[in-house]
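Page 47, continued from p. 46.
Same chain as before, 82 aa.
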Amino acid sequence: MPVRMPGLMVHKKQLVDMLVEALSFEEITVTARLESFLKNVRDCEIDKMAKPVIESNIELMLSDSIHHSQILTGLLRKAVKE
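Result:
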């Protein structure tokens, strides 16, 4: 059964597949890379003034990534229910 999305129509299976792919990418790839980058920043010797700013920004990006995962999970649940 087609599902209406802004500007296009997709079948439910396609929608679920797209959401699963996006969720997997967000949780596995993005989060892992940000955590690795944060560890590298913490371990490196860079300017003491810049380091906390960089760490803070990466931590914000991690927080955003978690929020994106929660949004995608909610969308996926709705798509599966309908």
